[in-house]
Structures are given as C-alpha cells and as structure tokens.
Design brief:
heterodimer; A: 684 residues; alpha+beta; 6-stranded antiparallel β-sheet; 4-stranded antiparallel β-sheet; globular; disordered C terminus; B: 176 residues; alpha/beta; Glutaredoxin; 5-stranded mixed β-sheet; 5 helices; elongated
C-alpha cells in the first residue's frame, strides 16, 4: 500500500511539474497575471508530493519491505537503522528520487525567498525548474521506478553495497546532489533572463546567492567524498582522478568560474553573455556528471548502478535541455551588448583570466575523462587515462590562476597601474618567497616542488593580509575593531575562501612530498618504523558486527619509546553479499595522520600490514571547509539580507521597533547598497 | 550570430561521442588469451574431492568454462540462464569454483540448481590467474582443440547468449 501511495505521488508530482513548466512561462511571455500567479502554489504542491514519495520509499526501506524490488536489492534486515535509511538513496532509483526531491526543495526555496523579485521573473525561473523536473520525473517513472514491486516478495534483501555502509555515505550523496541540483537554479535564472531579454546587474545580484549556495554544497560534497574515499577504500589516497570524481569536479571548476564572473557582472555589468554561458555550462556539466555515473559508459569505482538503457534517456534529456538552452543563448546573447569598459590591467581582466584558466582546467579534465571513450568510439583501441595525465596538465594550468588569487582582490575595477600594484605587493612577494624557501627545512628535507607549492599558498595568505591592512587604512576613523566591522561580509567571505585554497595547497604539497608508506609482512610482536613512529603488531582477534564478521588487528603506535595509542584496523566480510572490505584505522592529528590498514593474511597469524605517515593531510579537507565557510559568509552579506528582512517585516505587518530599525524601506535599502557598492569600488 | 552558435556546436560534437560511447562496452577488454590454447589445469572436483579433472579431458568437444563462486552476487543473475542452457544439452558447462568454501558452494548449487557437468575447485585462485580472471563471473568458450574462442566478462545475459555465444558454439561444433 505504502509503495503505491509513493508511486501515485510521483505521478501527481509529474502532472504538477508539467503545469509548472508550461503555464507560468507562457503567462510571463504573454502577460497573463493569473498564469504567472500559478507558479508558486504549483511548485509547492509538487514539492509536497515528491516529499510524500520520498517518505514512502524511506518507510519501505526502514520496515524492510522486500516486496519492493529496490528494497530487496539494496537492503537487508541485518542492516542497522541508519544505513537502511541511507540505503533509500544508495541505489540508482533512490538517488534519482533524492535528486528530484532536492530539485523540488530548491524550487520551493526560490518561490519562498524571492519575494523581492518581480513576479514574471520568479514565474520564469520556477517554470524552467519545472521543465527540468519533468525530465527527471519521467525518467524515474518510466525507466527506474523506485516503487517497482517484486512478487513474490524476497525473504531477505541482498544488502547495501558494503562500500556504502558508512557515515560518509549517509551525508556525501545528499550534499553532492544539493550542489549539482543547486546549479539548476543558476541555470533557471540564466534562462529566465534570456527569455525576458533582460540581462543586467540586477539579474546577477539575484542569481548570485543561489549560485554560491550551490557551490558551497558542491564543495562540501566533494570534500566528504574525498574524505570518505580516504578512510573507506583503504588505499590511503584522497583523490584518484576517477571518472566519477572528475564528474563532480567539472561542475565545481566551472561553477567557481561562474561565481567570479557573476561578481563582475553584478558590480560592473561586464561579461554578461559570458556569465550566462557559464551558468548553462555548469548545469550541463552537472547533468553530464549524472550521465557518466548512471550510464556506465566509463568504468569507475563508483559504478554502483549502471544501465546503458538509462544512459540513452539521460543523454537524450541532456541534449534536449542543453541544446535548447544554447540555441536560446545564440539567439538572445548577440543583443545583450557589452558591459562597462575596462583596461588590460584591471580587476575585470584578472577575473577574466581566472575564468579562462578555470575553464581550460575544466576542459582538460573533461578531455582526460572522456578520452578513453572518444578513442574507443573512433575505433582506435582501449586505454585508460590515469592520474599522471591529470597531474601533469592540471597543476601547470592552475598555478597562474592561484597566483591571480593573490592579486585579483587587490586590483581595482576598470583600471589600475602596474607600478602601484608592484610597490604594494613587493613585500608580500618577498615574505612569501623567503618563508617558502625556509619552511621545507622544518619538514626535514628541502625539495624544490615543496617550496614552489608553499610559495603559492603563502602568496595567497600574505596578499590577503596586505589587502585587509590597506582596506582598514582607508576605512576612515575609529579603532581597529570598528574598522574591521565596517567591512562587508562578502569581503570577508572572499578572503576566507581564498585562504581555504591556500590551506588546501599546503596540505596537498606536504602530504604528497613527505608521506611515507610501508607495506610489510608482520608477525605478532614485530615492529616497523614509519615517519618516526614505531608500529607494533599485537595480533588479531575475531569480531562480530551487526551484519558482518571481521578480523580486527591491534597495532600499538609508539614514538620515542612513548606509547601513543592503539589502532584497530579491520578486515570485514559482509554476511549477505560475502564482500570483503578493508576498514583502515586512522589516528588523526593536526600535523599528521597515522593510517593503518590490514592487507592479506599470511601463515602463523602473520599479516600484510600497510602503515602510512601522512603529514598535514587533514589540511586538505580543512581548506575545503574554509572555502565553503567563505561562501556561506558572503551570502549573509547585508545587500542580500536587507531585502529579506524588509520583506519579513512588511509581510508580518508588525511594527516592532527593532524590526523597523532594521527593515529599511525599499528606496533606502537600494540606496545603501548603492553607496556600499560605490565605496567598495573606490576603496579597493 | 555564428560566434554565439559555437557553444552549441561544441556541445553537439560531445553529445555524438557520448552516444557512440553508450553502444560500447568499457568492460569488454579484449583478452590476450583469445585464440590461444586454454591454460592447462588439473584440479580436484567439487562434488567428489578425491577425483581430479584435467583440462585435457575435454579435448575433442566444444565446452564452456564458467567461473563462479557462492559469494558472487552477479552469479545468481546469470545462473538460471546457465541451468537452462545446460538442460538444453547444447554444450557442456564446467564450473570453476573460484576462491570459495566447499560446503557453502555445494549448498549454493543445491539452492539455485547445478548446471555444471563437473565443478572443479580453485581455492587459491591460481588457475584463475592463468586464465586472467578479472572478476566473477566470467565465461570462456573453448573449442575442440582446446583453444579459447570467446571470453565473457561479467554475467552471461540473454542478449550475449543469443547474439554471440550460441552462434559461436554452433560454428565451432560444425568444425571438423
């Protein structure tokens, strides 16, 4: 019964999505107010039905209803509660439903938080989101219905893929999908702007916070995925340039370019058609990512659920959506006109250079990812492209982009003088060079590549400090604190994200150059020294988990004859599937991780044990978190907040004194933001 | 206008490649063993552990070697097809029980049916290595002279059986 309710809800959601994707757009084009007004209630209805469907599926998983095919294939009565819940989106069908649910959530969020936008704009945006939603609902209902029955019911489910039975699995896909799907909002804003023919700074202002939120989710999603691979796969790596990893990285790269290009469009009205093209590309890459993961055209460690028949559908959908969007672009963009002029040396050109570099990087990653497929399609044989290609290509392209991170925020809009910039940054450059040359000695050994990596990281950090100091000097009277509080949150957000990049680079550079690894045969009592730590193998014991049996090794870690801690790596065998899994044991520290994994059993209780010493590896993920925090900080900026507060107060019609003080009338609000903009441009 | 159509053109080229990609199978790695003599083995049988089966016993007939294990989920997928094929009597199927435990393997065959003329036991997977087994299940078609003619990676499907494997078997059986 419950699965049927879910199925019906999905059908109803599809009908509502069809309304949502047609009437509001036509209404906005023809100026029919009642059709425009339809957008919000319809999208909210669609959301409710998708939510019901999702709860129905979650209920089927939690109650282990093995008469549902999807549940029988991906769950098991022995599976602990939280993994049964996570199994809801562990399968192909379930992850599609999650995708649709998130799309509906984003759409509802647009309908709720866009009260300050003109009704026809909101109607168009929601309409475009409705069209995207139709595609996914049709896909789900016709090729991969999560509620398909299995009659007679299975006695027991065949279990969730053990790789996915992990906390990382509970949170990684939702975050990643929130990012992927979030870019559909940026896409919808871009298409709405093309449809209306009004591509201006206001449009950029509206779509910017949405884009940044999507970017934040994607950043966190990728970070969680990387962290999960690190401790779950047992290979000790954190990024493998696997096709599916690349599929999530591509929209991130182009999305990062979009975030920067939107800044230029909002503040200076430049790059208008470029920004629109980036918004379309980002979403296209999100769809491409879905296609690559779900169709099985590329082999990957992530190919959990692949089916070529489904691939045809996603590809058709991708082609329809993106070619319509690009046709619309080709038709409208020539009329957009150019934005404000700028010199060769200006913040605009810096942002443009950053955009191009990010796009070239994305293009090379895309090429590397699809190259095996292209070669195969041309009948030239089979091959695979591995990390050496990506590292050789990606690093040199990103190096100038990272150098620009330092200069960009310091340079002026429109034009600036090179000598002035050089004078202001000569100390920054000197400090970063000297410290980058010295620091590797503290790590025990000087290596040129380490100094180079650190130079880039220190450059970003020192430039950020120079920038803040300069800004404070020009912030009028007052002590340091009042001056600091005068700066906008988006300003702090930007520096936070940039410093995140620096921290990330430090982590990557140090762990790549100084990590040590030993793969040894260990008998009970034998010792091995890795990175100054002594690992002593104390033997293994058998452990029984809720749905697996495991061999657990005990390894004591000592440093300078001082006991540090015991580590317990496991080798698990899952009951239902019989799959073996390696659970690494990790001692996390601020300056290093100690990582131990069990290899193969040998005779007499001896094991092959892999032990790693990984300096600064956690900085990689910490850097990502800083980037995400930077994004979050910048969207809480006053110029986005003011309008919402204003709306809240008028909507509630309560004359609270505090709210009155904050809730400035519209004219004043826009005036303040204008003033703020003006000061920002002059100050910098 | 033309300038603005460039993104569309690039996208279309990409889409064409993706479409072709869909018709290809990335898992279909050409095996270096095709048209080479099947690696020889002498292994204990599953049902009667003290009996030995040798690869040379099958010289003179076309046969299939199916690599399977009770721990392999995909094997359950292809199993009904193998049982059907065995019942039709078209070709004898020999099972290579790969890195498995005897008792669970026997139970598994009892539960899902036993299509194998003989199952042989490759506990440590050494024969599997000689045959270049990537993962279970895999199926080899071997001709009368003991030469590997086809390798199927992953489960046998109705499609692969009807389009590739059965015609090939017919052709091989008709050879002198």
């Amino acid at each position: 019964m419950i699965p049927e309710i879910g199925n019906f809800s999905l059908i109803l959601a599809l009908l509502l999505a069809t309304l949502q994707g047609t009437l509001p757009i036509i209404g906005a084009a023809r100026g029919i107010p009642s059709w425009i007004a339809l957008a919000k209630p319809v999208v909210q209805g669609q959301f409710v039905f998708v939510l019901i469907a999702f709860f129905c599926l979650a209920y089927s998983f939690i109650s282990s209803d093995f008469s549902v095919l999807n549940v029988a294939n991906n769950s098991n009565t022995e599976l602990p509660f939280h993994f049964r819940l996570a199994a809801t989106w562990g399968s192909h069908e379930g992850s599609l439903l999650l995708w649709v649910l998130m799309l509906a959530s984003w759409s509802v969020a647009v309908s709720v938080f866009s009260k300050q936008l003109p009704d026809d704009v909101v109607a168009r945006v929601i309409g475009v989101l409705g069209l995207v939603s139709i595609g996914f609902l049709v896909f789900m209902l016709f090729t991969s219905n999560p509620f398909d029955r299995l009659l007679p019911a299975a006695a027991e489910g065949s279990d969730l893929n053990p790789l996915l039975q992990d906390f990382g699995m509970v949170v990684h896909p939702p975050m990643l999908y929130m990012g992927y799907v979030g870019f559909s909002v940026a896409f919808a804003f871009a298409i709405a702007a093309l449809l209306s023919g009004k591509l201006d700074a206001t449009w950029a202002r509206w779509s910017r916070p949405w884009t940044i939120i999507a970017w934040v989710f994607l950043t966190i999603g990728i970070m969680l995925g990387s962290w999960w691979a690190y401790y779950e796969l047992g290979w000790g790596g954190w990024w493998f340039w696997d096709p599916v990893e690349n599929a999530s990285f591509l929209p991130w790269l182009v999305g990062t370019a979009l975030v920067h290009s939107l800044a230029a469009t909002e503040k200076r009205g430049s790059f208008k058609s470029w920004t629109v093209l980036l918004a379309i590309s980002t979403f296209a890459l999100s769809l491409l990512g879905t296609f690559l993961v779900r169709s099985g055209v590329l082999t990957s460690v992530h190919a959990f659920a692949t089916d070529p028949a489904r691939g045809v559908f996603i590809l058709a959908f991708l082609v329809i959506v993106i070619s319509c969007a690009l046709l619309l672009f080709a038709w409208r963009a020539p009329k957009v006109g150019l934005g404000g002029k700028f010199d060769l040396l200006s913040r605009e050109s810096m942002l443009l250079a950053n955009n191009i570099l990010l796009l070239v990087a994305a293009a090379s990653v895309l090429l590397g990812t699809l190259y095996p497929l292209i070669i195969d399609a041309l009948g030239l044989g089979k091959l695979s492209v591995g990390p050496p290609f990506f590292e050789a290509v990606f690093v040199p392209i990103m190096t100038p982009a990272i150098f620009l991170i330092g200069i960009g925020p310091i340079s002026r809009w429109k034009q600036m003088s090179l000598p002035a910039l050089a004078i202001r940054l000569r100390w920054a450059f000197g400090i970063s060079v000297v410290s980058a040359l010295i620091t590797p000695f503290f790590m025990g050994e000087w290596k040129p590549m380490v100094s180079f990596g650190l130079l880039l990281a220190f450059w970003i950090i020192v430039c950020a400090f120079v920038n803040v100091k300069h800004r404070l000097n020009n912030s009028g009277e007052g002590n340091l604190l009042t001056k600091l509080s005068k700066q906008s949150r988006s300003y702090y957000g930007m520096h936070c994200a940039h410093i995140g990049v620096a921290i990330f680079i430090i982590g990557v550079t140090l762990v790549n150059s100084y990590e040590t690894e030993k793969d040894v045969r260990m008998e009970i009592g034998s010792k091995v020294t890795v990175g100054g730590y002594v690992f002593q193998f104390n033997g293994t014991s058998d452990v029984v988990g809720p749905n697996y049996k495991a061999v657990r090794g005990e390894i004591s870690v000592l440093k300078d004859d001082q006991f540090v801690r015991n580590l317990y790596p496991e080798k698990r065998t899952y009951n239902a599937s019989g799959m073996a899994m390696t659970e690494a044991a990790i001692d996390t520290g601020f300056f290093r991780d100690l990582y131990v994994a069990l290899g193969e059993p040998l005779s007499n209780g001896a094991w092959v044990v892999r032990a790693y010493h990984k300096p600064f590896v956690d900085w990689i993920w910490f850097g990502c978190i800083l980037m995400a925090m930077g994004g979050i900080t910048s969207i809480t900026d006053r110029r986005y907040r003011l309008k919402i507060i204003k709306k809240e107060s008028t909507a509630a019609r309560v004359a609270e004194p505090e709210k009155q003080a904050e809730g400035t009338p519209a004219a004043v609000a826009s005036a303040t933001t204008k003033v703020e903009l003006a000061t920002e441009t002059t100050k910098v | 206008m033309m300038r603005y159509l460039m993104p569309l053109a690039i996208f279309m080229v990409l889409a064409v490649f993706l479409l072709i990609g869909l018709t290809l199978n990335p898992r279909q790695v050409p095996s270096p063993l095709i048209d080479k003599p099947a690696p020889k083995f002498q292994l204990n049988q599953l049902h009667e552990p003290d009996k030995i089966m040798s690869s040379e016993d099958n010289l003179g007939k076309v046969w299939m070697l199916n690599v399977w294990a009770s721990w392999c989920v995909a094997c359950r997928d292809e199993h009904p097809l193998l049982v059907q094929l065995a019942n039709s009597g078209i070709i004898p199927i020999y099972g290579l029980n790969y890195k498995d435990e005897r008792n669970t393997a026997l139970q598994w065959l009892k539960r899902y049916g036993d299509p194998y003329a003989i199952s042989i036991v490759d506990t440590d997977g050494k024969v599997g290595i000689n045959y270049g087994v990537y993962g279970v299940p895999e199926t080899y078609v071997i001709d009368k002279e003991g030469i590997i003619r086809h390798k199927q990676i992953g489960p046998v499907t109705v499609d692969s059986l009807e389009k590739t494997i059965l015609p090939l078997i017919k052709e091989l059986q008709n050879q002198a």
